[in-house]
Specification:
heterodimer; A: 301 residues; mainly alpha; B: 4 strands; 56% helix; globular; disordered N terminus
Chain lengths: 301, 318
Amino acid sequence: MQRGTLVRNVDELIQKALTRRNFLAGASSAATLAAVGCSKTFQPQTVPVAPTSTFNDVDYLNFALNLEYLEASYYLIAATGSGLEAADSGSGAGAVTGGAQVPFTSKIQQEYAYEIAQDELNHVRFLRSALGSSAVSAPAIDLQNSFNAAAAAAGIGPSFNPFASFDTFLVGAFVFEDVGVTAYHGAAPLLTNKTYLGAAAGIMAVEAYHAAEVRALVLQAGSAYVGYANQISALRATLGGGNETSLSATSIVACDPTNAIAYARTTSEVLQIVYATSDGGVTSGGFFPAGLNGNIHSTNP
Amino acid sequence: MATTETQILDEVIVSSRRRLMMMSGTALAGLMLGNATKAHAQSTLADADYLNFALNLEYLEAQFYTLASIGQTIDQIAIGIGPGAAATGGGTVTVKPSGVASCKVPFTIPVVASYASEIASEEQKHVKFLRGALGSSAVAMPNIDLYNSFNAAAAAAGIGPAFDPFANDINFLLGSYIFEDVGVTAYHGAAGLLTSTANLSAAAGIEAVEAYHAGLIRTVLWGLDQATPAAGIAGITIKISNLRAALDGTNSDDIGLTTVQDALNGSTSNYTASTIVNADSNTIAFSRTTQQVLNIVYASSTGAKGGFFPGGLNGNVN
């Protein structure tokens, strides 16, 4: 962490703690809190004391950690042929199904893959460290049947192996990155701790760097791969409440076309995508055959 | 809730203490000084001030990309630059002597022309969104310099005596490189200071879009560098990043395009990786205070007005 960030975070935490005490001491703050606006993706705030939900910061960070386990597993296996070490997975971590080292054909392909793999591993380590003993272990992850089912649902074909080549690897990466941006964007305003908010906003930005990189490289890979990506994008839109931008040379950025602000998704919308379901009350499926670990693991009823 | 939060606060304080103990005496003195300055700034600025600060930066970006893309300024395509909802009444844009139309980049790489057009459109939308959100509080566009600023930046970075970002594809990409990572750090720094949830969500969403832009520009530049190493593109990005890190007083919060050795899931750092992402050792994007951002866009390590904003920013953060 940079020095300035640390100073700011500590300042804000102290200020926040004081504000919280003032708030608890008197009801005068309630009107202010109720007047706070809501973005379109969040439920109206009608109860000032519990403005968002029953979930707390730890729940949201563990939700993010599950997604980072998935991304890190995908990229590490693609880059090296093996996934997360036991020390980075927690006790009793679930098994990973499928995946293999991608047969890269150039130095720059490896550089891209190695960088993203290290980035996602760093996110796993950061979140596990921030959560300490509250960190959930890695859940069971499926990188084989999940992609086949997604390909079938998207109309790409009966199967899809993202580890077959660098170009298919990019399509597999495309499945994750834009979703990561929307997940962190949706969760950031729900965090009450400013240190965690700062971290979430910073990880969100990194996912957006990755997303742009992957989208630009898929474009380079040619129209067949752009076609696959856009079939995946359409599937995500169906499952995850819209919030998608088709990929083309003139639309690298995934954002709301009216104001060029990135999309946000609720935790349920994200779960619908990674579980590959549009049904309510679902607790597992798709990339997570045994579901996410932690309190946020079910799609909305 | 309160119990959890108290526990988190305790953990952060303990962790901060550990970090403090690891710092040298000099660093600690700097930390204390920074603390005092920050507390003062926080007590006097409201959401509208931060949004107007962002609006100034968006005016700069929108002008740059619109000029590069179509050879016109944003007011020529009916985007307001005056105070509040007023179309007129904003500052001037200084461009190279051959004029505004000559700023349209003679692109030879079709996708780069497409990218310029897309980013121009998105930065224009950010200007319009922020002006709409701020309503009558929106500040007018300040005077913007896209000529002397780039020449001075090139000299300061050790790139050369002059730099025309509108000359060709690569120069355009390098000009873009100067802005985008800064946009990310500016929104990242401001997001946590906003009090309204709606404003916070919007700022985070714009931050993500700036990061998409930064990731795109850096990916394209890295691809060009690796294809033609003799052009020295990556070396120029390192000089720009070093200049930004020097101006903001850290010398450590900006990473140019290069390769690094990573260990991944092994124990030996023997994987050669790119640096498309500009982030810290946790791979969390850097964050800058408003003062650090001002130092960069003013091209002054003391925050004296100049650089891209010869008369300073409009609004309370300047």
